[in-house]
Amino acid sequence: MCINRKYNILILVVFACITIFSIVFLFLTSNNLNIQNYDIELEFNGDNAYNYVQDQLDIGFRIPGTEERKESAQYFISKFLEIDSNFTYLSHNFTIYTTECQNVLFKLSEENDNIIILGAHYDSRAKATRDPILENRSKPVPGANDGASGAAVLIELARVLYVKKDNLSSEIWFLFFDAEDQGGNGIPGWEWTEGSEQFVNDLDDFYDSTNENIESMILLDMVGGTNLQFINEQYSTSSLLDELFAIGRTLGYTNEFP
């Protein structure tokens, strides 16, 4: 894996800290941004997250429909069951054309009615269609940053938040998407975000819409890149994105959250 271990651990930790504080400030406390006065012990372990990235790369190319993709889903289940052998998890199985795919959902603090979704895709791209080296464009992508990094942060966030589960006033979903990254001829005929669209179509199968409310979702995608800067893009809910960036800058990460 050709990435700078020390720097990329830092990036994983930075994004995880922002996510934890976002949960605390956006959903569990008032809207007043007062990080200095909030007593929370962050226990996110960057080495753990890095190792989870390496574990996924060791499995191989996580292309939809392959045995490696199936092994990845089982890997996530095993890591969550290490946290708690009774951790609730659900498989969302679906088919794109003739390819069997699988989203995996884990639920924490299910007694709460309000739901926060933390999501990431775990499939790796079947073809490196934008590789600057022409002969590489038909080869599969290892997916260390684009796929494995977001999934790794989810696993470590689950470990951290599980310890604090009795203090959570919202249910947390950890949602791993398959079949997200194959558009643009990664797999011919496939579109981007196939897995998340399938999940939204079947969403009512996974919660009680009469008594439960999905408040927000934070998607972790490509959070392990070198010299990474997060973009204040226009597709997300602007108020949530503004809060995330404000928290990041308040914590001192002005380069990562310009």
Automatic annotation (TrEMBL):
Keyword Transmembrane helix tagged: yes
Extent of the signal sequence: none
Identification of the protein by name: Peptidase M28 domain-containing protein
Cited SUPFAM superfamilies: Zn-dependent exopeptidases
Family annotation (PANTHER family): METALLOPEPTIDASE M28 FAMILY MEMBER (PTHR12147), PEPTIDASE M28 DOMAIN-CONTAINING PROTEIN (PTHR12147:SF26)
Molecular function GO labels: metalloexopeptidase activity
Organism this protein belongs to: marine sediment metagenome
Keywords: Membrane, Transmembrane, Transmembrane helix
Chain ranges of the Peptidase M28 domain: 103-240
Ranges annotated as spanning the membrane: 7-28
Pfam family membership, one: Peptidase_M28
GO BP, one annotated term: proteolysis
